[in-house]
Structure formats: C-alpha cells, structure tokens
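Hi, here's the filled form for the chain we discussed.

Project: internal
Contact: R.S.
Residues: 432
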Amino acid sequence: MEREDFSYKGLFLFSLPSILSSLLEPLSATIDTALVGQVSTEWLGGMALAVTLLSSFTWMFNFLVHASTQSVASSIGSDTENVSESVKTALLVALFIGLGTTVFLWVAKPLLYQMVGVTPEIYAHTDTYFSIRVYGHCFTLLYTTLISLLRGLGRVNLGFIMVGLTTIINASITYLALFVFDWGLEGAAWGTTSSFTLGSIISFIILLRDKNIKGRFFKSKIKKEKWFRFGNNSINIFGRSFTLTTCFFLSTRFASTLGVQDLAAHQILLQVWLFCSFLLDGVAVTGTVLGAKYFSKGEKQKLRLIYKRLLILGALIGFAFTVVYAIGGEFIVSMFSNDNGVTSIIFSFWLMIVLSQFFNAIAFVYDGLLFGLEEFKYLRKHMMIGGALVFLPIAIFGQMNGSLAVIWAGMIILNIYRGLSGFARVKRVVYE
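And the returned structure, exactly as it came back:
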C-alpha cells in the first residue's frame, strides 16, 4: 500500500493476500494426509501422530509470527538500520529456537512417542516420518518467521506468493515420491521438509534485496534493548496463545465426557468456527502491519481511520458468515456428517453458533489491532482473565450438566469478552 490507499477497497485488497495465505497454510498437511491416505492406512496413522507432535512444537513458538511482524512494521517509520536490526533479531531467535528444539525432539523421541500413544503396529511409520521432518524443523520455524517479516515490511503479495510456491513444491514432491518413484512415507516427509527448506532460502534472498535491508543486514548490530523487547513480547504472546489453546483443549476434553456423538458434534463445530478465523486473520494482519507502522510514527489520525475501516470490514465478513451459516447450515453440516444423532445435537444450538460469527469477527480483528499497538502484555492478561473467569466456570457448568451447548456458550462469551477488552484498550490508546 505504497500510495496509502485507506479506502475500504484498498484495505481489503491489502488484506487479500494475507487472507489467501491463511487459507493455504493448513493445506500442506491436508495434501500429505490426502496423498498418504490413498496408499496406506497404517502410514496415515503413523504420520498423523508425527504431525501432531511437530505441530505442537511449531505452535509453541508462534510468537515468532506476531512479534516479528509487529517489530519490523514499527521499525519502518524509523531509520533503515532499525529495520535491519529488527529483522536480524527475529531470524536469530528463530534460528536458535529451531536448533534447540531440533535437538530436543530428536533426543526425546521415545518419550514423545509414549505421550501421544504410538502403538507397536505404527511405530516404524511414525518414526520414519517424524525423524525426517525433525531434520528440517529449524527451517519450518525460519520459514514462518520469514513470511511474517515480509508481511511486516508490507510485502504481503510476496508473502502470499511464497506460501503458494511452497504448497506447490510440497504437493509435487510428495506426489512424485509416492506414486512415481515409490519412495514410500520417507518421500512424503522429504516433500514437506524440502518445501520449507527451499521456501526459507528463497524468502531469505528476497528479504535481503528489500530496500529497507539491502546492504545493511550483515552489518547491523543488535542492541540489548532490542533483545529484551523482543523477548518480553514473545513471552506475553506465548502466555496468550497457551491460554487460548488450553481453552480449546478443555472444551474438547469436556465434550468427550458427554459421549461419542457430542464429541463428534464438537469437532464439526470447531471446524466451522475456525474457518471464519482464517479469513479474519488476513484483516488482523493488516491491522498489525499498518497499525505498528503509523503508531510508531505517531500518526494517530491515519491510525483511527485505518482501525475504524478494518473493524467495519471485519464486521461485514462476520455478518456474511452469519448469513451463509443461517441459510446453508444443513448443507455445511452434511459435508461433515450424516449421523442423525450428531446433526440433531449441532442444530439444537446452531442459531447460537450463527449469531456468534459477528462477535468472533470483531474479537479477531481487535487482536490484530492490539498486536500493532504492541499491547502484548494486555492481550495476555485479558486472555488469562477471560479463560479463568469467563470460559472455565461456564464450561465446567456445561460439562457437569451434560450440555454441549453451554460449553460452547462459554467459548462464545469468551470471545465477546475479548472484543470488549480490545475495544476498551484501543479506545484508550488511539482515541484519547
């Protein structure tokens, strides 16, 4: 957005590459699952447990995504040396964490396999896929960090192109390995590992050629304050993400105590619920990138205009999901299950899910806006308050009374709380 087009159309077009990237990012796991599943159920089972372990460790460090985007975007308004310093800090942290977790994952393999319940029947398959993916785990973290840095620099189109390219590389190598060269599950693992490795190398080269970094990256020195600031932000983001994921985990755990059909209904609703977040994530990224840039410059008038319009865009997307889910509810649910017991549970409180989409959208966008304002401590604090005092009591009440609807009410009210707390903080920081 070099010409500063803050119209609704301009902001939407700026958000579009991030929206498409958010939809593509989960696709690599889906591709592996679909291709491997056509060859062997045992391979698929082994791969599923390996992916669960790897995804957990990737998620643990998702603070690299948000902290990197915010740090670089806020540096754009200052001198170019500061931009190079921010980029270098993020990449070194990602490299150190990547190398450390690679060693840990390799050494702790036996214990981790026990934790996820790897059985003797699929042990060899799990170990085959997991071991190869561990070799490239460092590149997985570097790749996600590099994409975040490109977004922070405002290069959202390039970020989308890189996500699309790595997805194509992964699909192509995995297909050839399985169906042409007959390399087995090892080939599928190398397909994913190769895609992240190549994606990291290409993204790094592109990053070094950026006008804000070119010729400065290797010369820039990182000040102690930069390390401390990035580390502090990362800890707060980790606390927020850990609390949110714990809420999702507990909701599934409580649903499992209600019966198989309730658990199945819960899993379907989670997919419906999360799909909206993929689209809103692109709008939230725009809030982070532009918010950090103009907040660091002190240009609050532009910031107010951007935030107002992004919230309206988010509300419109949330309203669109409300309409789609209201009209197409039966068709959407039928894509996941035709079990009458499961669908009857879902539709017993489907209206609540439909109406919640608007509040979800607002909450998701406010998260992105607060990321841009570097309000990571505030986000962590209120996510913990919401999780402990809003979600947990309601969810426990629902579990004790055998009601999946009440458990979901807890999740919805948590998002309403997130939206209200986000509104309060943005109003205070930006409008006062």
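Let me know if anything looks off before we file it.
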